[in-house]
Structures are given as structure tokens and as C-alpha cells.
Amino acid sequence: MNPTAPESSALRGLMLDLAELPDVVARLSGLMSGLALRYELPGPDHPLLGARAPETTLATDAGPRRLAELLHPGRAVVLLFSDQLRPELPDSPHGPLIIRADPALEIPAGAALVRPDGYIGWVGDDIAGLTQALATWITNRTPRHSA
Which helix (H) or strand (E) holds 65? Predict the structure, then answer.
């Protein structure tokens, strides 16, 4: 591409115009930073599955909590937006953090499993799906190291 060619000037002008649009800036930033990465994961057909969890403030019994802050300890987070979903989980300091919250517009589902890296490992409305996702993504075993 010759930077002095007339078509280069037109393309540069078009890109500058596009770079003023917030949606274009967000998309380009996501591609350049890797935050737009989406993993192909098994589970229900949901637009958030495998995507980075959206930043949101959750309304919990303990008050408003930002999802990003809940991920700081490096644990998975199970978000429960429905009282019908009550997973059986052992109480473990290494297990997932369970958060009951009011439904969030950014995560339209009964529940979501957010992996420690901030990606949605499962999202849906059924206890069987949540139980399977927890069995897939969460273990409470201590890793064995060979000498």
C-alpha cells in the first residue's frame, strides 16, 4: 500500500471517521487487547457462553458488588439470579464463590458460572446444566506434584 496514493488518503480518511464511533472503537480495542476473544464451549446456545463476563454491579443481600471485584481472589464465581437454582456445593475455600443476586440485565439467565479468568464457562436456567458445569470446571482436589 502506497501511503501517497489517492486511494490511501481516502482509506485513511474513512478509518479516521470510523474511529470516532464508540462501537467501532470498542470493537477494535477488544480485538487488539484480546478481550473480544470468545471460546467455543459446550453448553446451551447463549450469546455469553465462552465470552468475557460483562462488567456489572450486582444487587446482593450484602449490598452492591462489582463482578470484577468478586473475581479478585482468583476463584470461580457462581451467580445465582433465580431462587429455584440451589446447587449442592461443598463448603471449601478453594471452591467457587456463590453469589445470590437480583437478575442483571447484562447477564440474562437464571445463573452463570464465571471462571477465574473472567470468562463465562456456563450460563443458563436449569440446575442440571449448572451441576454439570460445576463438575466440568470446578474441582476441590489438591493437585499432586511429582518429585
Answer: strand 63-66
